[in-house]
Amino acid sequence: QVQLVESGGGLVQAGGSLRLSCAASGGTLSWYTISWFRQAPGKEREFVAANRRTDGSTYYSDSVKGRFAISRDNAKNTVNLQMNTLNPEDTAVYYCAAARGIYSGPVLYTRTPYDYWGQGTQVTVSS
């Protein structure tokens, strides 16, 4: 059973940066496609970014493209999300998720393929 733990959230001013990390126990993250989702108060959980395990392809939602970057650190068994130029609309609880199967890009934007989820880390961006 893989357990995912997110860290790195906090309070930041608009225009600032944060780096989130997703660490795993009970499994090796390089065996999984890892994605980040977020959920703002009163809203549905939405896809943010993905790193596909088979070929390292990365995917981003339009709202974060060019500002966020997902990367793996296999030596530390972590997947990171570098978030730059943050704005108040980025305020949410951020979750990492792991999928064992092989899926096309669009499928990764949904919650369907993911086998494991973390508990989330709060990111708050003040204006």
Task: Give an overview of the whole structure.
With 127 residues, the protein is mainly beta. The protein is built from 1 helix and 11 strands, in the order βββββββββαββ. The chain has one helix spanning 105-108, and strands at residues 3-7, 10-13, 18-25, 33-39, 46-51, 58-60, 68-73, 78-83, 92-99, 116-117, 121-126. Strands 2, 4, 5, 6, 9, 10 and 11 form a 7-stranded mixed sheet that branches. A hairpin with a 4-residue loop joins strand 7 (68-73) and strand 8 (78-83). The longest helix is centred in the last third of the chain and has 4 residues, at 105-108. The radius of gyration is 13 Å and the shape is globular. The model has no long low-confidence stretch (mean pLDDT 95).
Concise synopsis of the structure shown:
With 127 residues, this protein is mainly β. Helices cover 3% and strands 48% of the residues. The longest helix is centred in the C-terminal third of the chain and has 4 residues, at 105-108.
Characterize the quaternary organization of these chains: single chain
Number of strands: 11
Helix content: under 10%
Which regions have little confidence, pLDDT < 50, spanning 5+ residues?
none
Radius of gyration: 13 Å
Structural class: mainly beta
| Residue-averaged pLDDT | 95
Total DSSP helices: 1
Shape: globular
Give, in order, the helices and strands. Answer: EEEEEEEEEHEE
Strand content: over 45%
Biggest sheet, open or closed, and with what strands and sense? 7 strands, mixed
Intertermini distance: 40 Å
